[in-house]
Amino acid sequence: MPEVKPNWENINKVCDRIEADPDSFDMAVYFAETYCGTVACFAGHAALEMGMVPANLRETEGVGDRDNARLAVRPWMRQDWKEASMVRYPHHQRLLGSDDYAPMISVRSVATEYLGLTDDQAEQIFTAWDVCTVEDLRLKIKEVLGDE
Question: Within 10 A of 111 (CB to CB), how many other CB atoms are there?
Answer without folding.
Answer: 28
